Amino acid sequence: MLPSSIDYWPLGGGESEYIEYNTTHRIVPGKINVHLVPHSHDDVGWLKTVDQYYVGANNSIRGACVQNVLDSVISALLEDKNRKFIYVEIAFFQRWWRQQSKALKAKVKELVNSGQLEFINGGMSMHDEATPHYVDLIDQTTLGHQFIKNEFGQIPRVGWQIDPFGHSAVQAYLLGAELGFDSLFFARIDYQDRAKRLKEKTLEVVWQGSRSLSWSSQIFTGIFPRHYDPPDGFTFEINDASPPIQDDILLFDYNVQERVNDFVAAALAQANVTRTNHIMWCMGTDFRYQYANSWFRQMDKFIHYVNQAARQLEFFIGRNASGPNTDALADALAIVQHHDAVSGTEREHVAADYALRISIGYQECPLLNISYCPPSEAVLSDGKSLVVVAYNPLGWKREEVIRIPVSTDRVTVRDSSGRKVEAQLLPITNATLSIRNYYARAYLGKSPSETIKYWLAFSVSVPPIGFSSYIISTVKQTGPSSTISSIYTLEESADDTIEVGKGSLKLIFSAREGKLTHYANRKNLVTASVEQSYSYYTGSDGTDEDPQVASGAYIFRPNETFPIKSESQITRVFKEKDHAEVEFTIGPIPVDDDIGKEIATQITTAMKTNGTFYTDSNGRDFIKRLRDFRTDWELQVNQPIAGNYYPINLGIYVQDTSSELSVLVDRSVGGSSLNDGQIELMLHRRLLHDDKKGVGEVLNETVCLHDKCEGLTIQGKFYFRIDPLGEGAKWRRTTGQEIYSPLLLAFTEQDGNEWINSHVSTFSGIDPSYTLPNNVAVITLQELENGIVLLRLAHLYETGEDKDYSVLASVELKRLFPKKINKVREMSLSANQEKAEMEKRRLVWEVEGSGERSEVVRGGPVDPQTLVVELGPMEIRTFLIDFAFLRLFGS
Amino acid sequence: MLPSSIDYWPLGGGESEYIEYNTTHRIVPGKINVHLVPHSHDDVGWLKTVDQYYVGANNSIRGACVQNVLDSVISALLEDKNRKFIYVEIAFFQRWWRQQSKALKAKVKELVNSGQLEFINGGMSMHDEATPHYVDLIDQTTLGHQFIKNEFGQIPRVGWQIDPFGHSAVQAYLLGAELGFDSLFFARIDYQDRAKRLKEKTLEVVWQGSRSLSWSSQIFTGIFPRHYDPPDGFTFEINDASPPIQDDILLFDYNVQERVNDFVAAALAQANVTRTNHIMWCMGTDFRYQYANSWFRQMDKFIHYVNQAARQLEFFIGRNASGPNTDALADALAIVQHHDAVSGTEREHVAADYALRISIGYQECPLLNISYCPPSEAVLSDGKSLVVVAYNPLGWKREEVIRIPVSTDRVTVRDSSGRKVEAQLLPITNATLSIRNYYARAYLGKSPSETIKYWLAFSVSVPPIGFSSYIISTVKQTGPSSTISSIYTLEESADDTIEVGKGSLKLIFSAREGKLTHYANRKNLVTASVEQSYSYYTGSDGTDEDPQVASGAYIFRPNETFPIKSESQITRVFKEKDHAEVEFTIGPIPVDDDIGKEIATQITTAMKTNGTFYTDSNGRDFIKRLRDFRTDWELQVNQPIAGNYYPINLGIYVQDTSSELSVLVDRSVGGSSLNDGQIELMLHRRLLHDDKKGVGEVLNETVCLHDKCEGLTIQGKFYFRIDPLGEGAKWRRTTGQEIYSPLLLAFTEQDGNEWINSHVSTFSGIDPSYTLPNNVAVITLQELENGIVLLRLAHLYETGEDKDYSVLASVELKRLFPKKINKVREMSLSANQEKAEMEKRRLVWEVEGSGERSEVVRGGPVDPQTLVVELGPMEIRTFLIDFAFLRLFGS
After folding, report:
1. DSSP letters spanning B554-578
2. What is the CATH classification number for the domain harbouring A411?
3. Per the UniProt entry, what is one GO biological process (chains A, B) (predicted)?
4. Pair B350, B401 in one domain
């Protein structure tokens, strides 16, 4: 098995990444010392009443709940003894205090005694200074101070009048010095005064507020350089936009150095306007710390990282050593299954993130689909041989044509035993070269070599769950070493009728009409008139009266349909395959007319399909669809097109009394049968209005190079085939599984014959003399980290779907695995419990109106001696297999 | 002392109000059982990438941090074992788990084992159902389930596909039943289908998703009646607008019954569309529980209160018994000192709350200022006698005229020894009656009797820190029993010159010009030309280019000034007082022209004041102001009017070489001297634009009756006087203190002479033979709850302010308090530490450029034998006095 499936669960049992942050307090002489002052400025009534602020009522006016502040601050302080907080408004604190349990009160008293929680200012409110009478100031301060004294035995030492709109002399000398305060801090000051003080570094003064008492009632006064909030970029309330420190090296966007640099820059800026090396940052502002942890978590990190530069280096080294690697592919694929991802309703930058995650796991030839494959190009241009390893994850042998881009026509292909393999050179169209050139630069930042001319196509044969190797070499001869094939372009043809196909299937095109006209398969005797066309829908811009909105990420709401004369597509017919492969290239969709467009293709026959079609459910069951009809309720048809669209993951088919037309897709698309005999697929969408369902972004994907952007071009494939009625399922199931699990290619170079001689060049995971029944697929085969192998077998057919294959199937595990099997346990689908246990726990429902239970075909228990697994139609069975030989390597 | 100052600290040492909520789980058959399901739907990538969502980066796109969710949920679960939470997306949980300490991991494992934390669905993501291939669904689910199994040994039992945009058959039977799930829940469904199911109560179904496996792979499926969020009004994320349960009976807005009713109504509504009595509420939605406590706190309360109806009754009883009472006055006043309150930048509904808080402490005659006093009116109309108790909080004896409204002219006033007191009957103007009628109905909801005709004015004499009682009786005689005084109205006068004043001060008015013209005091030989006028400023609407904004709550930004011809005002001169009292009534300010206006008054003399004026700092020091000048920086004058306005709490004065003009105010106003010889006060403002500094509301106060609103009318007083140069301070200090501390009136009724004979009818807190020096005031005298008395003495004069009084003053505590003093401790200003201790701790600052220290006069230490307290100019000293007799009542 390939290494990529080993260590599948690196995170599950992985080592702890817990970081203990060092946040101990210390002063370093001669350096700038930044003192973080965590605080919440809780107005005792402003936009809401004092009680509304306390309990968090009337939040439509302002989201603020002081109870949250105090609850969460106390909790955060109790978690880490290095954390500190100041609290100011006793009117709020007293409300909170009254509601606490004795046990919590005792803990809070310890926080106050240890200095973690300090009362500052300490009046009931942070009184105004312009308008109250001094006796009222004294009274309200006394009330608060008495509470602090009575409950905590503490005496506030700092005046903290950060928000009042101006400052009175009485505040400084009477409500400051005479309270025993050492210092007074505030933020608001005349803008002209502040400008002068910033310039002259006189933000810190000793204030003598009284002519009569002069120096005997003076107080150190600190004016904040700006407001009483943190420097820009250091606010960490829930929902604040400052970048958090991301120091988990296993996540993306690690930014410790960047944030440390930001911190240092902000500290230097402040040190430039203050007199000493000690500067204060007010870490908080109005009604902040509603969830205190959001602040303390970040401050912990800043203290930790700013104090220890060496450690940062370790981290950077660590990141390189243990950063994202290919083992993360499984995780990436799991994340991408999220419903906002596969459905396309994620934002574009999130889509880019998904793509990045996937690319990390599959780096070899990221843009092979558009003919860009650096390893193959580099090796061959140096005159060396290229080894191509083709891996087949399916449980049956496959013969397929693979293609790689080459720059020369002088290449030969040999299999691992040295036999020459027939190969073809297919000219690469200018359209493809143009995409290759643009997209490689846009997405990889690399200019691809200009010399690629051909697709080298050759047939490979790969054993089940195994791989084969092929060697591609340049030859020193004049003229091409392989057949150069033609591409028929309808415009260039001399005849009106063009017949394509060297095997039993022929497609007939009309050059004059520029389209497919007939389909004929001499093997199953199907002939039919078939047309394939393209059209586009204009997307609704949502400006009309209807409660529905614009066509967008969530909504398909077409206005009108227009035919498209031609699209860039290549139709291929392979000798051994009785289906047509259509490779389409669509884009950029023009939107110069400010109208969004959605591109669809139609395959049209004369079949009388009676409004009925079938679409797959997650690539598994096919569900019958009736146009303009729902089983569960009487449908009111408001959207005759969109209301009949269904998701297509595997395929879609229609049938009449004699034949069935099937289409398979290489990706999830929308599809329908809007007219009898016709199948339609939606292939590409470019829209100019947000549909207001939440993504808040227009579905207008662009690709940019040097700040110039153009609409996204996409390339993909679908496949179609016509079978006699009742015979289409075989193709849909087998080919569908192959499309979902294409051969995986890996590349390496070799000098001479070294590689091929020193490596296993062909291998199958199963007994070469055994083959799985045609109606069964191995859908999972993975070695878990404990050496146990996870096997999932799936019956591919539904009851009644195929006369030969919709029957009980048997798999012989002893032949599937030539190694000695020690033990087999049947598990639930996700392998987290034994199946028998699961069945025991299953709730039995009495279902109203369900009548008698029909017969269900399921496989029986697995005999531990014979180890034969039976599977009924659509059954999937999951096993953990313990191989005896693996034990030898254990203790 | 009056009872209102006893129990001053009811909250400080009050009993605990901690409520232990009963949230134990129970099922009650036959009732509706509401199952709260706390959850957070955490999209694994949508508007942000998965890592950005996890660490809370890129919050400008969407405030969401899953780390917060998990941190705070775990913390909340650990706090209370009855709390539960489900978690779904293992991609996030795994990131979080990796970063936790071993200790916390152990605790979380316990939470999972006990069922407090349950993994639901349990794939890496909540996969889409429309577009992925079934093998990918199995793989991503397996990855998550393996993690849960490996780390916690747990097996998810519930499918939870609440957000995907549609649902596939494969999900139901394969990713549901075959995983061993008992049930599957989701929210999204075609709107037509949902409507039918709501109607037919078929939201709950047993789904057989597979034709082939039919009943052997069925699953119970619950479709939510609406979305996956809680019923309206039950969302409790930080900043959510749902009303929290307010169950603290000491706060306002207690709403337990109301919220319980809401809960029951929402439960009934849901029970109407579900099949059984068991209904589920999804308590959460996208990225919620960023601070889990905000949810659990409310859910705890709902569980507690909805389950125990009897307890609610207790609470309502409790509220009546221990609800807000008059003891809360001190708290209310403290809260009102908050800088957004006194400065007027609070919102109007907050101002109403402040007013309510204050009114609770002072209920007797809330609208006495506009002649509405129900106790006096009721008693006298019944023919009984009314006892008026006048309390003097100052340390000196006061002789003042008090006024109460009466409906008859046949009343007499006697003092407590039965001596008749001279009284006057002053006609109540129609303007006052109109305000009285409107405001009593608007603010109290009461229609006042229509019979009030006069102010009964009489002189009272009240001892220092004490009270006197007066008895008002109706007499059975014809014709008035007291002198009915005239009110001069300038329009009615026959002569041009009107002289007002029966004492030494005379004011001369010109009836022709309609204004004051001269001021003459024969006692201090001051005569002067004086005019008093009104004007209004038009407020800037902020639409010009200037960075400054509209005139509003924070900003005074006048455009133009216009004179006002007449205002409703009464000017009074009392025989014993050498000052003029101006009572003004202003409003509603007309704004029909859509222009906000600000009303000011000017007192204008010919004094040459050289751009200089003096304003008080918090009613204490007077600060010298120079027009268009700042001491600390070179002022650039951008706002020639607003830039020269200062807060006036006590008063403002100007002086020239021979005299000084002083104005005292009864409330905080803005004031200035914009022209030499002139003093200006801003009295009322009504503006139509928000100044965008935060309050988000227009300063346009209105008073509404039956949904009809008119602009606020205000009534107030200011006082002015002219003294020879150097002699104004005495008046400003003494009268200023009296204005700040007016006599407090309380009322009771008596039949015959009962009350006066059975009560102490006159009392002084100090030795009647002792009087405080004229330059000292008792600013605080309060009995603390431990029986200790808090005393504050304030020297009222600044150094050099008055030739007689700006000297060291002495207070003999033994004579001030006739009781035996056990111990006197001098304290810091807020009495939370001994003064000597405070001085020891005081930091000593070396002040740059401060030169030699000038002499400061302060009182020396208090000799414990003589107990004489000395006070230097502006000194305030605070003492705790322990009286011997109080000890006798102790243990």
Report:
1. S---EEEEEEES--EEEEEE-TT--
2. 2.60.40.1180
3. mannose metabolic process
4. no
The CATH number for B699's domain is: 2.70.98.30
Whether residue B411 lies inside any domain: the answer is yes
The whole-angstrom separation of Cα B786 and Cα B268 is: 53
Residue A755 counted as domain residue:
no
Q: Is residue B599 part of a domain?
A: yes
The count of other CB atoms within 10 Å of the CB of residue B452 is: 22
Task: State whether A842 and B182 contact (CB < 8 Å).
Answer: yes
pLDDT for B546: 67
Residues A387 and A253 in one domain: no
pLDDT in tens, B265-291: 998 899 899 888 888 999 999 999 999
Residue A316 pLDDT greater than 50, yes or no: no
Q: Is B338 in a helix, a strand, or coil?
A: strand
SS (H, E, C) B85-151: EEECCHHHHHHHHHCCCHHHHHHHHHHHHHCCEEECCCCCCCECCCCCCHHHHHHHHHHHHHHHHHH
State the Cα–Cα distance between residues A649 and A633, nearest whole angstrom: 26
> A320: pLDDT confidence band, cut at 50, 70 and 90?
very low
* CB-CB under 8 Å, A740 with B133: yes
What average pLDDT does the segment A78-84 reach? Answer: 94
Q: Judge if A378 and A344 occupy the same domain.
A: no
Q: Do B164 and A349 touch (CB under 8 A)?
A: no
- Rounded distance, CA B156 to CA B86, Å? 10
Q: Which of A63, A171, A620 sits opposite B134 (nearest CB)?
A: A620
pTM comes to 0.86
Instruction: Evaluate if residue A660 carries a pLDDT over 80.
Output: yes
Q: Distance (Å, rounded) from C-alpha B812 to C-alpha B862?
A: 10
Stretch A767-792: mean pLDDT, rounded? Answer: 85
The pLDDT assigned to B255 comes to 94
Q: Rounded distance, CA B140 to CA A780, Å?
A: 12
Chain B residues with CB under 8 Å of A56 CB are: 238, 244, 294
Q: Which domain holds residue A392?
A: 364-486+743-747
- In a shared domain, residues A556 and A688: yes
Q: Is residue A758 part of a domain?
A: no
Q: Which residues contact B565 (CB under 8 A, 6 or more apart)?
A: B514
Q: Which two tokens stand for residue A569?
A: 């597509």
Residue B205: closest C-alpha in chain A: A847
How do beta strands B158-160 and B183-186 pair? parallel
Contact state of B169 with A623 under an 8 Å Cβ cutoff: yes
State the count of interchain CB pairs (< 8 A) between A and B.
Answer: 626
Q: What are phi and psi for residue A516, nearest 5 degrees?
A: -65, 140
We report the CATH number of the domain holding residue A212 as 3.20.110.10
Structure tokens at B609: 């004041």
Residues A68, A157 within the same domain? yes
Are the C-beta atoms of residues A335 and B91 closer than 8 Å to each other? yes
Q: Is the pLDDT of residue A109 over 80?
A: yes
Note the pLDDT tens digit of each residue in B674-686. Answer: 999 999 999 999 9
- Tokens standing for residue B366: 């809330």
DSSP three-state, residue A556: coil
Burial of B860 (0-12, 13-18, 19+ CB in 10 A): exposed
Q: How far is CA B120 from the centre of its chain?
A: 47
Q: Which residues of chain B register pLDDT less than 70?
A: 1-17, 309-364, 366, 375, 378-383, 450, 477-494, 545-548, 566-567, 752, 755, 758, 885-891
The gap between the terminal CA atoms of chain A, to the nearest Å, is: 24
Structural domains in chain B (count) = 4
Give B59's contacts in chain A (Cβ within 8 Å). 239-242
How far apart are the CA of A323 and the nearest CA of chain B, in angstroms? 14
CA distance A367 to A443: 9
Q: Is the dihedral of CA B553, B558, B559, B560 positive or negative?
A: positive
Regarding whether B339 and B384 lie in a shared domain, the answer is no
ipTM of the complex: 0.88
**Distance between CA atoms of A213 and A216, rounded to whole angstroms?**
6
